[in-house]
Each structure stands twice: as C-alpha cells, then as structure tokens.
Design goal:
- By secondary structure, the chain is α/β, with parallel strands linked by helices.
- Helix content is about 15%, strand content about 30%.
- The strands form four sheets. Strands 1, 2, 3, 5, 7, 8, 10, 12, 14, 15, 16, 19, 20 and 21 form a 14-stranded mixed beta sheet that branches. Strands 9-11-13 form a three-stranded parallel beta sheet, with no helix packed on it. A two-stranded parallel ribbon has the order 4-6.
- The radius of gyration is 27 Å and the shape is elongated.
- The termini are far apart.
- It holds the Pfam family F-box.
- It comes from Panicum virgatum.
- InterPro entries: F-box-like_dom_sf, F-box_dom, FBL15-like.
- This is F-box domain-containing protein.
C-alpha cells in the first residue's frame, strides 16, 4: 500500500488528498515522540485500534499507520472497513491478497484513468470473493462495453455478502453454481445481468436498484423483494414485475416508451410509488396542439405541502386534506410540431399502473420554459377513468 508502483496521476491525487498523503513523507522527516518516549496509543487493545483504523476511511492511511510502531504493522489487514481509492489495479490486487478473512465492508474505487478490461474486472472480483465481505461496493471505469457473453464480467458467488453494489459498464455473467444466500441489497450500475437467472438465486433479496437499465425489456419476478428502483434511459417495449412483497417502487423511463409498450405489474402491497416517463403524446383542443412532455404517478407522500386556494393565496396543506389515492402529475405545453406521434393524452394515461387516482397536478410549459405555477384538482378518478376526456 506504499506509494511505490503508483502511477504519476494516482500519486498527484494522493498528495492532494488528506487521507492518502499520510505516509508520503519527504526524506528527512521524523516522527515526534512524547517526552517520556512511551507509545501510549500502541498499548491500546486490538479491538480499539481496529476501530481507529476503520474511522480513517482509507485503506492507504490505515496501512501507513505501520510507520507509527511495530505494534501497528499489518494491523490494517484486519480492519472491518477498508476504502480503496486513488490506487493502481496492481496495488489493489496486492492489498486484497493481504487482507485477513473475513473482510468487513470493503469499498473499491478505481480512478477513471485506469480503464480495466472485462478480464481484469473478473480477476478483481474473484480475488475479493474469498474474503467473504458482508458489504461490498465496487466502482470501476471500464473499457469498451461488450454485448457478447464472451465480453461479460464473471460474477463470483458472494454467498455471505448481504449488500452488493457493482458500478461498471460491462455485462455480468452469473457463476455456474451457487446461491447468493445472504444477499439483501443489490445495486447495479450500467452493467446488465440476466435477472431470470439471478433473482431465483437470491432468496433473501429485499432491495434492488438499477442506476442505468440498458435494454428495452424489464422482467423482475421475486417473492421477497420489498424495494425496487429502476432508471431506464432507453425506450422501453415491455415491463413485467411480479413482487407480492413489494412496498416501494420507483420507476423512471426518461426516453419515452414505445407505442407497442406492454405493462404487467403484480405488486398488491405497494404503498410508496413513483412512476415516471417522458411522454410524447398530443391532444388537439381549442385549435391548439398540446403536448404532454412528461407523466408522473406518485403517492401522497411525494405531494408538495402548499396549494393555491380560490383566493390565489398559498396555504399549507393540512394532513386531513391529503388525498387517499395516487397523484397524477402532467407537464404539458403548446407545440407547433412534435413529429409522428400516435398516442393521445387519454391513451398515455391509460398505461399507468394505477386506477385509484385522486389528485391531478398540472404543470404548464410555455415557449420551452416551465411556468412555476401549477394547480391541484381533487376528485375521484375511478368512475371516469375508462372514459376520461379532456375539455
């Protein structure tokens, strides 16, 4: 973990960092001792020393405490928390090889000037898996994104890991055998994994998050899942979610959904819902072409706490005034030409995954700028839902 072998860019980062520059001392620098020449810190019990090392928040700083005393040498390898950053891949592999099993909660971040291939990332994960971390976070700037299985990163079976966060571009290939028996929280960045093969091997999964979903179809079937967060910057064709224990759902499709979009949602316990996509629907009313730019469905917990009264004065929304159903929020505006758009407002709204709508929130866009005004209309949507008309 010393500076030897670090690239020039990494070393500049280390010198600029409060934690990483510890130990990068110039020649001739001496450590001061107390007047009684006794090392009182090193006399502390191991558990307390390990707690101090964990508080440093940096594996390099923890390793460089070996300069303090022989008593501290190698102690960092037993630290319950290790944060590896501003480090070369070779140094990282060497450091991981010295950690005493089991590891606690290692966090690995490789700076962007170190771009790793799928083989290097696979090797890094394979080196980490035997440490049996309870929590693991890996953020790597990878090379060219591959689309074939041969270009995928091999994911080891982290059978004792409860929380796993993987953030890199490459696809993930599942291990041939084994379950993620302890996994409760999984966060995947822009990588893609075959959910049909993964989710049945995660019997305890509670939280699932995809920062950037890259494909036009989303299929998630899990009997244990309670929280789901999906962000999709691509045009979606199909969403299929079956999660009987799901309580919190956040879904964002910022690149519209296709005209052939199909939705199948079975999650009867959801009570915290945020469903959004950038719509491209139009409605010709009053001789003017209106465009719906975005549509968002949310639960009352996401409602603003002020409203405009009949007297046009802002008042606070009291708890007794909060709606019991979902809130439909639409951003609409006048447009001259939107191209080939087949869907109307009514058809677009009919595709949202809720029927108990009680609040309509309208935000207007004028000449490309959102107006900072909106209105809330409280009523029961259900009886009118199938024959909703705009006037």
């Amino acid at each position: 973990m010393a500076a030897q072998g670090a690239c020039g860019e990494c070393r500049r980062w280390q010198l600029d960092s409060t934690c990483c520059r510890v130990g990068l001392l110039r020649r001739g620098t001496r450590l001061r001792r107390r007047a009684d020449d006794e090392d009182h810190i090193s006399a502390l019990p191991d558990d307390l020393l390990l707690h101090i090392l964990a508080r440093l928040g940096c594996a390099r700083a923890a390793a460089n405490t070996s300069l303090l005393s022989r008593r501290w040498r190698g102690l960092w390898t037993r630290s319950p928390e290790l944060n590896f950053h501003m480090i070369t891949p070779d140094q990282l592999h060497a450091a991981l090889g010295r950690i005493v099993r089991p590891a606690g909660s290692p966090r690995i971040f490789l700076p962007s000037h170190h771009s790793l291939s799928t083989d290097r990332i696979s090797s890094l994960l394979a080196t980490t898996a035997p440490l049996a971390p309870t929590e693991l976070a890996v953020e790597i700037h990878s090379g060219k994104r591959g689309s074939r299985d041969a270009d995928a990163v091999e994911l080891p079976c982290f059978d004792r890991t409860a929380s796993l966060r993987l953030d890199f571009d490459q696809r993930l290939r599942l291990p041939p055998a084994g379950n993620f028996a302890a996994l409760e929280s999984l966060s995947v960045g822009s990588g893609h994994v075959a959910l049909g093969g993964l989710l049945p091997r995660c019997p305890c999964l509670r939280k699932l998050r995809f920062s950037i979903w890259q494909f036009d179809s989303v299929t998630i079937h899990s009997p244990s899942l309670q929280e789901l967060d999906v962000f999709a910057p691509v045009q979606l064709q199909r969403v299929d979610i079956v999660a009987p224990m799901l309580k919190k759902l956040k879904f964002s499709a910022i690149n519209d959904i296709s005209n052939a979009f199909s939705l199948s949602l079975s999650a009867p316990l959801v009570d915290d819902l945020s469903w959004r996509w950038n719509a491209r629907s139009t409605s010709d009313r009053f001789g003017v072409l209106w465009c719906m730019w975005s549509l968002k469905l949310k639960t009352p917990e996401h409602l603003e706490h002020t409203l405009v009264t009949n007297s046009r004065e802002n008042t606070h929304l009291q708890p007794q005034h909060c709606p019991h159903g979902h809130i439909l929020s639409l951003n609409i505006g006048v447009t001259d030409n939107l191209g080939d758009v087949a869907w109307t407002f009514e058809q677009e709204i009919s595709r949202i995954p809720a029927r108990n709508l009680s609040v309509l929130e309208l935000k207007f866009r004028q000449e490309g700028i959102f107006m900072e005004q909106w209105c809330w209309i409280y009523f029961d949507f259900a009886p009118l839902y199938k024959n909703l008309r705009w006037n």
